[in-house]
Amino acid sequence: MLGTLVNALAVVAGSAVGVSLRRHIPEGMHEILMQGLGLAVLVIGMQMGLGTHNVLVVIISMAVGGVLGEALGIEARLNRLGLWAEARLGAREEGSTFARAFVTSSLLFCVGPLTILGSIQGGLGQPPVLLYTKSMLDGVSSVAIGAALGAGVFLSAGTILIYQGALTLLATLAQGVMTPDVTREFTATGGLLVLGVGITLLRLRPVRVGNLLPALLVVVALNVLLPVLSSLIRSLGIVR
Question: How confident is the model at residue 218, as a pLDDT?
């Protein structure tokens, strides 16, 4: 859990720097910060996504996960949570980007491969080197998001604590499930979600990335079940 705590503190520190600079940075500077961050996120997402060895499973996972997420209204719930926090903290004003900062930063900081691999690394009792690396990246990103979108980025530190902490605990119970093959396809699917975040940051088209989050569970289930089904089919003599 030490790596997750360091990660959350790095985001808080970066957010404080970004929010403090917000009033002193021209509007054009805000825009270019988000464009630069959006382009970097696209590159990260593409690198992750291209690592797949079974693109069909990734496509099915995205489709099924998107349907599940849309039915559950995950994106709307995340937005409502951000708006609720915004109102409670007295930050609500016309044109406020508080909720957008919370949702964008939470998704960006919690979808990438370092989140998953780093949490698994910590859950297996290894030094959390990956989460320390992620902490530096998230700290820099939170400066850009805080300067461009405002104080909502602070709340993503809580998302990190809850999400990464839960993954670290689950990793101790699922050591046999997250094989290298499963982790690879999980990372590739996460890369598509990161691409969605980048596209949204660049304002090319709003992508409801929150509603696609169930794809991460679906891709794990498929990669675990498909070998079992394949073995069962061969044992029954249906396919030789």
Answer: 93
